Amino acid sequence: MTNVVKSTTCYECDANCLFDVTIDPSGRAIKVEGLPNCPRGQLQLERQYHPDRLLYPLKRIGAKGSGEFERISWEEALDTITAALQTAKAQHGAPAVGFFAGYTKEARPQLQRLAHAFGSPNYLTESGCCFSATMVAEKLTYGYKLKTTSTVESPKTQCVLVWSTNASGSIPPFENHHLASRKKGRKMIVVDPRRTETAEIADIHLQIRPGTDGALALGFHHLIFANGWQDQVFLDEWANGLDAFRDYIKAFPPARVAAICGISEADLRAAVELFATTKPAQIAMSPTSTVQHSNGFQNHRAMILLSAATGNIDREGGNRFFNDKVLPKPIELFDVCKNELPPRIGDEIFPIWTKYWPAAQSMLMPDCILEGKPQPLKALLAMGINTAMWANSKRMERALGELEFFAVSDFFHNPATLQADIVLPAATSLERTALIAYPGCAYQGEVKYRHQALPPRGEAKPDGQIFLELGVKLGMAAQFWHGNLAASWEEMGEGLPPDIRKEAWENPAGVTVYSPVIDELVDLGFLDADRQWRINGFRTATGKIEFDSVELKAHGYDGLPTYREPMESPLSTPELLAEYPLVLTSGGRQKFFTHSQQHNIPAMLAYDPYPRVQIHPDDATTRGIADGDSVEIRSRRGAVTFRAAVTDIMKPGVVHCFHGWNESNINELTDDTQLDPISGFPPFKSLLCEVSRL
């Protein structure tokens, strides 16, 4: 017998890169090839064969949080979960049962289907604090999602405004990403509290105080309109509420904005002129960082409106609309949720967000469990959940411990699984099938079907398989393909044209698919394949770009992208400065870790072994802190221990903590009470703290 090489797709992020895995005659994977610039992908076998991996169903036998479990059979585990869900439904109603999806994302259609078939509208995901707010802000403002983090470079872009993202740590292919190096003829402005690798190569770096992005964006607008740099012809035809917006931005002159943000007025003026007069210009942003503030939704709107003001919207070299491509058939039963089930968690408080996002708002789960507000939550079925995802994480940990029943699937134990009644072993991406529709870029995407490369270790099962088997146990066998996971993927595949479906199943590299809007543009004689608004306008409430949103105003919000100081900051809470004089930001991405994942892989920890807080030398010196010292970071929510990384890449007065460390979880210090009023997102990235040497 000889080794076998199989081509499959990676799932260490959602790019689903193709790679080869070599399998020895015993059936063990021994080598990964084809992911040269991604340590997560290269080292995924370390997780596959990790000695601490969960391999068998477990039942809690000790107190919640004790870590005392015993092995049980799958039959007992599924029967226990089924009985508990039915009991909760009978006693409290189906909506009091939550269904949560963290990582991985591939079994979400099956879990959401289970939630809605069970009668619960409360399917919740990690998108309650990740990505969705940017999408909602963009659709509300433009009627379309924007492409702001493309891996495909436009050769026509003359200036790129990189706002709070760092490609070499966050966007595959990392150091080879087009934003990670200087490009001939392309100017670059970077906005970031840290002097990142991207900021190092920028023409101008605006090192702002965290949370002041909205003020900076409005300051950009002020100078653009004051100098006549706007595309007035375009705005006259396509802007709604422009007069009110122009009146509002008068309050953001350069001197005031520079003072709010903590930057040089000269740098601000130079950056605005460079961006506004070097066309086409593009804004490159994280899908997450700009909205993880107490005013993040409106801040993000002010930022993305820069593309409209300068006439760079949906143009080659600017910011393109993000279009749907060929998509699989929906199996989630979300139409049942909308039309037949009671309101979702968050409908009561964040109606704009829930209108545009097909899930309940997961950031409210601690309130639901502990206080019964806005809805009671008594039982929970989850996959890939970690309390580290929630602001004020210890409160979420306590909430999970107070559920009447809690079951979870995962690869390893974490603070959430230790609160569970039943813990189920999840199969890895090498051990499970999946139909993958990768959104790709503005017009181009991919459809792939991943075949199983390895048999599951121990008794691990794919998350999707678990949910189908529970559907069968709950008396809905026909709705859940009688427990056949492959059949669920095949039904999703019915939404694909037959030729694409066939190739997706047969070709590991998948199929490239395109948006039909390309043909529509060409048919109408628009051979440049951009500026879709020439066909359909903007798919907003007014058919125009919403500088002053009628939809927001109808729900009682400001229609303008108003700026508000972070709810906890040197300006809004000066009474806290004596005890907490430093601004705390967190969550800068690293290519070595996906949130809390990979932190238990020794080979990965060799790259970055400790939870680090980055602090400026001046701030460190006044506190007697040296590089490498153990330090305590305190906020009003608690205290955690980190290692000091003394570095002048930080803005003085600001510290940054890397996230995802279960033993040093920075989100134990973040605020779960001052959620963004439109999206419900927590302010992970702009709070107050103090750092002391231990």
In words, what does this structure look like?
Belongs to the prokaryotic molybdopterin-containing oxidoreductase family. This is Molybdopterin-dependent oxidoreductase. Its cofactor is Mo-bis(molybdopterin guanine dinucleotide). The chain is an alpha/beta fold. It has a 7-stranded mixed beta sheet with strand order 5-4-17-16-15-6-7, with helices on both faces. Strands 22-26-23-25-24-27 form a 6-stranded mixed barrel. Strands 11-10-9-13 form a 4-stranded parallel beta sheet. Helix 17 (about 395-400) links the parallel strand 15 and strand 16. Helix 8 (about 215-225) runs antiparallel to helix 11 (about 255-260), helix 8 packs across helix 12 and helix 16 (about 365-370) packs across helix 17. The chain is globular and about 70 Å long. The relative contact order is 0.16.
Task: List descriptors.
single chain, 694 residues, alpha/beta, N-terminal domain of TfIIb, Rossmann fold, Dimethylsulfoxide Reductase, domain 2, 4 domains, seven-stranded mixed β-sheet, six-stranded mixed barrel, globular
